Amino acid sequence: MYTHCVIGSGPAGVACATALLAHGARVLMLDAGMELEPDRATIVRELSQKKVSEWPAEQAARIHGKRGAELKDLPHKNVFGSDFPYRDTREKIPWRGDGALLPSLALGGLSNVWGSAMLPLRESDILDWPIKRSDLDEHYRAATQIMDVSVQHDDLEELFPLYTANAVALKPSGQAELVLKNLERHRDALRARGWHFGQSRVAIRAADSPRGSGCVYCGHCMTGCVYGCIYNSADTVRELLANKNFHYEGNIIVTKVRESSGAVSIEGFHRTSGQALSFGTGRVYLASGVIPTAQILLRSLNAFDQPLILRDSQYFLFPIILARRVRDVQSEALHTLSQVFLELNHPRISPRSVHLQLYTYSDFIAGAVRQSLGPLKMFSRQILERLVIAQGYLHSDDSPAIEMKLQRDGQKDLLQLEPQRNPETAGTIKRVLREVLGRFRALRGIVVPPMLQIARPGRGFHCGGSLPMRTQPGNFESDCLGRPFGWNRVHVVDASVFPTVPATTITFSVMANAHRIASQTADK
User: 437-468 pLDDT, tens per residue?
Assistant: First the structure.
């Protein structure tokens, strides 16, 4: 029997498994394990063996899919032209909601489609947590060993340690370089207003490493990297298979867990055949994402109609038009992930931090601009050479939430998701725009408030806190080892246990916390 079982193969799952294996545990990973369609995977494999200039146009068009979307729309991101990361969830793990927040049954989970932004928690944002950032320090360092990261020494380091001695950074785009130079000229004045800025930290292989070649700046980050430079936890699963103490079992949907006599029994079914399955282990780690984790625990407790409050970090977008054009952005060799991070810490905006990510030219943005301009699209080049998109996140205290309830629906049960409005959200976002608009001399760019887009709750996928860690947990809360109240051998290691959701990026901290919990319980 495997001594420890990890449910889920996303970033939390692989960080957890890595820590357990480092302590000598025998680890079983159960996972639904959906993958890219074989025909698309073949194209990706073939293109990865060629230079971009050698890609056959028909193959490239097939995996990049539709380019761009209307600016008024915030579509979910596909990868290699496929929606497989989101597929079949309403059928296999029944849930009902508006579709803004989606679970995943994919090998690698939502790391197949994430933006790969990486920041640790800021100490001042987690003063109400039962753990400190220092409790996560060594585990942040461990996470940077699991994946390649693009980081550099800059202004952000005052708030956010790098957690790696190997500071290798991507080359910024021409537009990003211009913005950073503009900000640097006004650094002291911006600092006085609580601004910190720097090049984005992203989980991407910026230079050649033992894992593969570095970024080639092909500009296709938003539709999938055929060279595998953007981190995907599925790659870590494949690496772990070389460890004799690790076993991966795909096509498994877990439905319940039960503790008895110092062990845990796991119930589920085969994803394609529907055959009922069961497993036994000494300790279980739930890393399947906030929706499946809630389903598993509520179903295990027979807790129908029990509300769990999922906290969200409100996601919003607005354009910035630069005063100066950067010519020929359409032909520039660049990456299209986030280019610049801005951290706003101003009490007049919010007592909590606000996080902004700046995106410069990409084919995705270009397609959206051309569609929005319609018959005036002949002016798109002039606009694109000045256009930067700001993607913002608020702390969960300033954001809406989502109520989750397990309900019976005929012969099956499903998880009902209902958004809950926060009256603070709109005002906080307005204050953010007012602050950025007021710094137009530093940015050398102007915000366009009428084009602000505020996403539906959950759309940014920065959600957690449905089973929050507490020093003395009560019902439907967890202890500092992620154990829900009343459980001893079942640990929640995904974002469900975060007491709040700070505005800074979520995945790095999820991985660090999962690694912490696993490290502290591997020998128990």
Answer: 999 999 999 999 999 999 999 999 999 999 99
CA–CA separation, 508 and 520 (whole Å) = 19
Q: Is the pLDDT at 326 greater than 60, yes or no? A: yes
Q: What is the distance of C-alpha 294 from the center of its chain?
A: 18
Residue among 172, 179, 173 at smallest CA distance from 197: 179
Q: How far apart are CA 516 and CA 120, in angstroms?
A: 14
User: Look-up: residue for tokens 């079949």?
Assistant: 88
Q: What is the mean pLDDT of the chain?
A: 95
Q: What is the pLDDT of residues 75-110, one digit of tens each?
A: 889 999 999 999 999 999 999 999 999 999 999 999
Long-range contact list for 81-90, CB < 8 A, 24+ apart? 81/40, 81/223, 81/224, 82/36, 82/37, 82/40, 84/34, 84/35, 84/36, 84/37, 84/112, 85/34, 85/109, 85/110, 85/112, 85/113, 87/34, 88/34, 88/271, 89/291
* Rounded-to-integer distance, Cα 142 and Cα 100, Å: 32
What distance in Å separates the CA atoms of residue 318 and residue 247, rounded to the nearest whole number?
A: 45
Q: Do 335 and 198 contact (CB within 8 A), yes or no?
A: no
State phi, psi for 364 to the nearest 5 degrees. Answer: -65, -50
Please answer whether residues 369 and 293 qualify as being in contact, where contact means their C-beta atoms are separated by less than 8 angstroms.
no
Cα 155 to chain centroid, rounded: 23
* Assessment of whether the complete model's pTM goes beyond 0.90: yes
* Intra-chain end-to-end CA distance of the chain, in Å: 16
Tracing tokens 């109400």 back to the chain, one arrives at: 128
Tell me the Ramachandran region of residue 476: left when phi exceeds 0, alpha when psi lies from -120 to 50, beta otherwise: left
